[in-house]
Amino acid sequence: MDEIDVPPFFICPISLEIMKDPVTVSTGITYDRVSIEKWLFSGKNTTCPVTKQVIADCELTPNHTLRRLIQSWCMLNASHGIERIPTPKPPISKAEITKLLNGAKSPQQQIRCLRKLQSIASENATNKRCMESSGAIEFLASIVSTYDATAAAAEESSLDDEFESIRLAAEALSILYNLQLSEAALKNLMGKSGDFVMSLTRVMQKGSYESRAYAVLLLKSVLEVADPMQLISLRPEFFVELVQVLHDQISQQASKATLQLLVSVCPWGRNKIKAAEAGVVPVLVDLLLDSPERRACEMMLTVLDAACGCAEGRSELLKHGAGLAIVSKKILRVSQVASERAVRILLSISKFCATTHVLQEMLQLGVVAKLCLVLELECGFKTKERAREVLKLHARVWKNSPCIPRNLLSSCPA
Q1: What are the distances in angstroms from CA 93 to CA 21, 68, 90, 97, 131?
Q2: What would the 3-class secondary structure string for 110-132 be?
Q3: In a 3-state reduction of DSSP, which class is residue 258?
Q4: How far is CA 181 from the centre of its chain?
Q5: What is the pLDDT of residues 333-368, one digit of tens each?
């Protein structure tokens, strides 16, 4: 292929490779379908890569003439090692999706429909957007809601009904997550009442490991577009189930999504109290003991910091035998972000829970020595200031510790 000149208009402006399925956007520029779909849908860009004009309509028009030219050129140059490009399968139409959805009445028909939808969505991003605009999202959400109703009436339903409902919900959640829904579709799912969040919470409570994992991943996407009032109104059982997913360690991806969710929702309203009452603190302390990777450790400490912003969270941290020790241990061992969060946690404890027992425990566990070390090393101005504040608050109690700086001792009352 190096010995032959490829006509420049055969080359995709994004991938710089010969186009296999050329499509034209509203600006008149032709791209390979896979490349422009990734640009528009996965990258969430709204401009034409070549002209920089806004693409108001994401409709991709197949350029059949150019494709036939490319195919003919490939056949003529087969002796140079150029492989023939097969004719691509045309994207699905709205009419086909609607017909498929209308035929899914019984559980068996719904299973077949879900598998077909999974196959359609896996082909290309255009199919995903077509499904989104053809009522597939509402159909999938209704299956999840049906599972919610079945789970709520579990005592009256048979085991076969419950198993069928679980299977359908897992399939529907898998498709919903993998569709990479647009912001508008996610907001529509969230709705005004937050019923879909409750349905996903019920799935986390009663579903299989697979469906629970998909529920968490979908919740993360949905709550990213929620308004403040919806975040403030999250129910206590939502936090209980998130904490349970963390405890069960269903998968690395699910745990990461759960931590990201907690980081984003805990600052709103009374959510930090709900999280603390749901038992997030002891679960996070136990996970931190296993020395997770850097980013996970930072998120765990961020959630712990939020939880320690309320009395319930601080109490839970002090109840745990390893609470103070593990927070102190992470200082200067993970990253500047982790050190900052850990010192913030210790400052909260020092301000609001400074009993004689707690202060002595901090001294015996080496917390005081670690805070003194923070003052000596490069770890961020704010982190140093908070460490200095903790030491200054209780310098009189810790005055016999050899690591306490003399200037702190001289500034505290005798």
Answers
A1: 17, 22, 9, 7, 9
A2: HHHHHHHHHHHHHHCHHHHHHHH
A3: helix
A4: 14
A5: 999 999 999 999 999 999 999 899 999 999 889 899
